[in-house]
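Re-running Lipid A biosynthesis lauroyl acyltransferase to confirm reproducibility after the cluster update. Everything else is unchanged from the original entry.
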Amino acid sequence: MKPGSAKAWLRAKRARDWLVAKTAFAVMGALRWLPADAALSFADRAGQLLGPLAASRHRIALDNLRKAFPEKDEAWIAATAKRNWGQMGRVAAEYVFLDDLFDYDLARPNAGRIEVAGAEIFEQLRTSGRPAILFTAHLGCFELLPVAAAAYGLEVTAMFRPPNNRYIAQRVLSARRTKGGHLVPSKAGATWALATKLGENGKIGVLVDQKFKRGAQTTFFGRACRTNPLLPKLARQFDADVYPARAVRLPGNRYRLELQPRVDLPRSEDGSVDVAGSCQRLNDIVEAWVREHPSQWMWFHRRWSK
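Result of re-run:
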């Protein structure tokens, strides 16, 4: 591409990103005028109606579901993909109401929309004095986890992949920095920031279900894929404890937050963490989560190797 053409393409892309961001912010602002329950339900219906119109992404979702669940018929595949678009609509609405949604009260654990499993682990982590890694996947309301940790007085530094749209990425980062712990965009310097936190016996959060071209060779739903080795490498370097965590959506606009018991990562003969084996262990845990709640995982990206 010629320099002049490249500059014109970049200007056009920035203009499109700005317009998309402004539209997204306007929709989120309009949702804010609705009660949370009405906004969540509306976003679900809108997602199921409009999502399949994004033809290329919808085809990826259908193809991924067929690969993961070859035993299911086409009616189930289509219905699950449609419900998944509704879940993506909820992601947008939950972003607007995220800090209001966490209404868990220790004195009245069954009074709000959140139920918590593993609350005692939050307490243990807050006082343990040991480095720890919490991992989750793009399943359910995963944004709820750092907010919940902060509510328990547990500071978690979480790495996230910022949206490709720079304007939306800036809004996400600024909003979550103060209300949900600290965020580290997955770019140059991110690993150093997480390592520094673990070196201070801190706690970090990592998403482990993204494709990573140079990752460890593993399987997911029985199919070959590459998995980012960052978590097991950090666990090995800092002797960090590793905990699975997820926040799944329940009927009636409710949620179940689960902080699960510590995972014992596979070890090599010398006693160190086995990186490839640990990557597979993480995949197996995430796969079990997805099988339990198939419509709540993001099926619109290419997870498997071709």
